[in-house]
Amino acid sequence: MGLRAIAASAGRYLGSTVLTSGTSFTTGGSTNKIFVRLQAGGGGGGGVGTAVTAGGGGGGGAAGGYAEKTFTVTPNTAYTYAIGAAGAAGAAGANNGGAGGDTTFAVGATTVTTKGGNGGIGGTAATTLTLLGGAAPAISTNGDVNASGQPGAPGEAIIAATVSSGSGGSCVLGAGGNARNTQGAGGVGVGYGAGGSGGCLVSGGADVAGGAGLAGMIVVDEYA
Predict the structure, then answer these.
(1) DSSP assignment, residue 4?
(2) C-alpha Rg value of the chain to the nearest Å
(3) By CB atoms within 10 Å of each CB, which of 13, 101, 133, 170 scores lowest?
(4) Cα(82)–Cα(128) distance, rounded to whole angstroms?
């Protein structure tokens, strides 16, 4: 990435650390600069409620936001961060998915914040054309690069037997859960920070849940 090249020009590359848990990162004894990449948690997909003569698809959850930042730091110093949690799957029935958590990294007075993806919209099955909207994401703040995740796709029902759930939003570090057009719960994506897909209910089927989102992460590159 371009910002990594800028950071590298300031000193010797020392190594990288992937953070998926915890709250504090301590720089090495020779570290003067760090380049951080933050990914927030993805939202869960929406569930769909039963209707004997109808079908429907829940909306997909949005991916979490992404940011990059180069900081000047002090060797052997602890810096605080938070990893965004995965958004919960929308429970079986007409229930929205949960929002993903924010991922943050703080150096001095500057906190880079990537925003968790919103949960997908749940809904009730329908026999006419109905869209159960996806989830719009929010943009990150205080990075040198600030980006949002991809919104979740809307679920849809055209007739009782023609339905599709919304796919989960994707991001730099993860791919969203796949849409489905057969009876069942929504899917979970791969990687970090992506959204879960909505559940899919066909005519005569039971209530279905959405798919869970994926947790966020941080990569820290250190330079002398």
Answers:
(1) H
(2) 20
(3) 13
(4) 44
Residue length, the chain? 224
Token digits of residue 40:
């927030």
Question: Where do we find the tokens 């602890």?
Answer: 78
pLDDT digits (tens, 9 = 90+) for 104-130: 999 999 999 999 999 999 987 776 666
Note the Cα 179 to chain centre separation in Å.
16
Give CA torsion, residues 85, 150, 201, 182, to 10 deg: -110
CA atoms of 208 and 122, how far apart (whole Å) = 10
Q: Look up tokens 């914040």; give the residue.
A: 113
pTM of the shown model: 0.91
Number of CB atoms found within 10 A of residue 141's CB: 15
d(CA 99, CA 41): 8
Among all chains, which residue has been given the structure tokens 């279905």? 208
Task: Return the SS3 of 126.
Answer: strand
Assign 121 to helix, strand or coil.
coil
* Cα–Cα distance for residue pair 48/57, rounded to 1 Å: 6
Residue 193: count other Cβ atoms within 10 Å of its Cβ.
35
Q: Which residues contact 34 (CB under 8 A, 6 or more apart)?
A: 7, 27, 70, 71, 73, 107, 220, 221, 222, 223
Quote the CA–CA distance of 52 and 38 in Å, as a whole number.
Answer: 44
Kindly report, residue by residue over 160-206, the tens digit of the pLDDT.
678 889 999 999 999 999 999 999 999 999 999 999 999 999 888 89
